[in-house]
Amino acid sequence: MDAFLQGLALVFNFQTLLVIFGAAIFGVFVGAVPGLTATMAVALLVPITFYMDPTPAIAAIVTTSAMAIFAGDIPGTYLNIPGTPASAAYVGESHQLARQGRARETLGTNLVCSIFGGLFGTLVLVFVSPSLAEVALKFSSFEYFWLALLGLSCSIFISIGSKTKAFLSLLVGLLLSTVGLDMMSGAPRFTFGIPDLMAGINFIPVMIGMFALNELMMFYSSSNEGRNVPAVHKDKVFGSVPKHLKHYWRNLLRGSSTGTLIGALPGAGADIAAWISYAMGKSRSKNREAYGTGHIEGIVDASSANNSGISGAWVPALVFGIPGDSITAIVIGVLYMKGMNPGPTIFMDGGGLVYALFTVFFIANLIMLPIGYIAIRSAKVFILTPRKILMPIILCFCIVGAFAINNAITDVWIMLIIGLVAYILARNDFPMAPAILGLVLGGTLENNFMSSMLKSNGDLLSFFSRPISASLGAMVILIWFLPLFIRLYRRYRGAPQSSRTP
Amino acid sequence: MKDFLLGLAFIAAGAIVYVVAQGFPTMPSLQYGPSLFPSLIGGGFMIGGLILAISRVGALKGIGHGMTWRMEREQLRNTLLSLLPALAIVFYILTSEWLGALLSLALIMFVLMLARRTSPLLALGVSLVAALVIDLLFSRYLLIPLPEGLLGVWG
Questions:
Q1: With contacts defined as CB-CB under 8 Å, which chain B residues touch A220?
Q2: Average pLDDT of chain B?
Q3: Is the pLDDT at B69 greater than 60, yes or no?
Q4: Could you tell me which residues come within 8 angstroms of residue B136 by beta carbon, excluding any fewer than 6 positions away?
Q5: Where are the bilayer-spanning segments (chain A) (predicted)?
């Protein structure tokens, strides 16, 4: 009880509440301007949170990401341009509704679904993670090795598009994680004699390069500014929300639970959660034909899913230190830099911190209601913000932000090089999430492998000698062969009826 | 076509990583030395790059003859424009020491805004205000030692 009150005190003070409020506004803005993603918002925020206490720092990240994911639907609805990738699954649907003059009604429903999804994910986080943490306390380096490998494998398996490209993207991240002094032998690796690289490549310039500079370059390579808001909408924001919720409460629950689950899978974040639950909602719907013509049902599924995914991603991040998506990957980097190691011990000796975190999640989702409402009413402001003025300012934030972490110009170089590589890769449809996961988990993977090998005198079979470790290993191997099984199954299903055996 | 070249690039990068990794010291007490993971990554680059390159060979044959290396004018312009932010960063790295962060940032923003046809007056105003805000936020509030440059000399 003491810890709980301590946690509340960490949140309910003027500074933290002010940070939450500011972060909410920042999140709405970044989410609602097309081309600025939620991950970019978090990456830009990190240099500033770096100088805060842990609780307000985490509060800022949680609030910003939740708000940005909702706000991404605002330009999606009005302009058919998703504000963040997580809205891409259903922009077509919501834009159709806007063209029927129902933009505010759509966004209102969307807002309520987002809040519900976020709270649902938070409840799962609150109730599941402490008991998972007790299991995780029994883990040793063998289990953590498999967990890291499981996370990395998931990030490839679940990625959309070419698996080869996802694999290569992951390797780029892993390679970056090997830079610096080797943990075991102390030998410098890939440091090229640069002293700043001895301690390894810092996360933050990489994140800024990968998610912000990359997007900036994308913006300058396309010449369309593309913005005209066609109609003025006078429909009520929350007027028909109760009706929709009564009608589609099943979709709401299904979207939230699917979203939480997918968010909790390493490597899959809000965008994949939205795609999958939109597709699931469609395949289960009674009015499948209505999808794509402006049908609110699909929005209920997907908009609750992407916000619950944001909360769900924190479960593995807090319990095992394995990020569920690229935002929590950044958070884990921040936690490490603040000297707090994410993992089961956070639940045991963290004092009020865990309760503070849970409270922050509730507040972040609840504050969405008023701020989201205002954002919907003033949607035009965000949509008309000229990106040609905004983008140069963001670039300057990137430069100063990268510099600020170590006060080193080397970090600005790192941001530049990573940004260029990320730009080339992203233009050719390489997913970025595996790379960031590789960078965050690379060290965990290698260190746990090495210490396991020290314990067992180099016996590789020892990875299968403990029950939990063996089953995690089996899961990893299963995931590797899953695409093969699916292909065989499809071929089997596609075979003529006569050859089928019962 | 691009995938084929990228595949080749990954193969080359993998080979370099692998060769460099072989030079890392090994320790007799450890079965697996610091070169293990980088070698695996280098190998993975080569395999992945090969798959990527091979999967595009079929597409290459078809266009091999009629291919022109001439880029469309607009495409070239867009590629050059996309490099603007990168050039701006290089500019900052090179000039911030003597121009100072404030002036470098303001210059970068001004030029980038003009590149997208913002009216000069607006661009000037916004970039000056934004540079001041960024400089104040980071150097006064977060206490980051941003280079002061010329302005520092004046006091």
A1: 81-85, 115-116
A2: 83
A3: no
A4: none
A5: 107-132, 144-160, 167-185, 197-217, 313-337, 352-376, 388-405, 411-426, 433-450, 470-489
Instruction: Check residue A35 and give left, alpha or beta (phi > 0: left; psi -120 to 50: alpha).
Output: left
Could you tell me if B19 and B91 lie in one domain? no
Provide the chain A residues 46-85 that lie in CB contact (below 8 A) with chain B. Answer: 47-48, 51
Give B 55-94 residues with CB within 8 A of chain A: 55, 74, 78-79, 81-86, 88-90, 92-93
Structure tokens at A184: 């075991």
Is A13 in contact with A54 (CB distance < 8 Å)? no
User: Would you put residue A193 in left (φ > 0), alpha (ψ -120 to 50) or beta?
Assistant: left
Q: Which residue has the higher pLDDT, A160 or B91?
A: B91
Q: B52 and B101 share a domain?
A: no
Domain co-membership, B55 together with B91: no
CB contact at 8 A, A443 and A145: no
DSSP structure class, residue B130:
H
Chain A neighbours among B 97-136 (CB < 8 Å)? 101, 105, 108-109, 112-113, 115-118, 122-123, 126-127, 130-131, 134
Nearest CA in chain A to B1: A428
Residue-number span of the structural domain to which B50 is assigned: 2-63
Indicate the burial class of A419 (C-beta count within 10 angstroms; 0-12, 13-18, 19 or more): buried
Query: Are B7 and B42 part of one and the same domain?
Result: yes
Measured between CB atoms, does B45 come within 8 Å of chain A?
Answer: yes
**In this structure, what are the phi and psi dihedrals at residue A188, rounded to the nearest 5 degrees?**
-75, 135
Entry pTM: 0.82
pLDDT by position in tens, chain A (length 502)? 677 888 888 888 888 999 999 999 999 888 887 767 788 888 888 888 878 888 888 889 889 988 888 888 888 888 777 777 788 788 888 888 888 888 888 888 889 999 999 999 999 998 888 888 888 888 888 988 998 898 888 888 877 778 899 999 999 999 999 998 887 778 888 888 888 888 888 878 888 888 888 888 888 887 665 555 555 566 777 777 788 878 888 888 898 998 898 888 876 778 888 888 888 888 888 887 777 777 888 888 888 998 899 888 888 888 888 888 888 888 888 777 777 778 887 777 666 788 888 899 999 999 988 998 888 888 777 777 787 888 898 899 889 888 887 888 999 999 999 999 999 998 888 888 888 888 888 888 998 898 888 888 878 888 888 888 898 899 889 988 888 888 888 888 875 444 433 3
Tokens found for residue A124: 């799962």
Structural domains in chain B (count): 2
Torsion-angle region of A471 (φ positive above 0: left; ψ -120 to 50: alpha; else: beta):
alpha
Q: Are A266 and A309 in contact (CB under 8 A)?
A: no
In terms of domains, do B137 and B103 share one? yes
Residues B7 and B47 placed together within one structural domain of the fold: yes
Instruction: Kindly give, in sequence order, each residue whose CB lies less than 8 Å from that of residue A142, ignoring residues fewer than 6 positions away.
Output: A448, A452, A462, A463, A465, A466, A469
Q: Which residues pair with A188 in a beta bridge?
A: A181
Cβ-defined contact of B112 to A395 (cutoff 8 Å): yes
Residues 398-417 of A with CB under 8 A from B: 398-400, 403-404, 407, 409, 412-413, 415-416
Whether residue B137 lies inside any domain: the answer is yes
Q: Under 8 Å CB-to-CB from B61, ≥6 apart: which residues?
A: none
| DSSP character string of A452-495 | HHHHTTT-GGGGGSSHHHHHHHHHHHHHHHHHHHHHHHHHHHHS
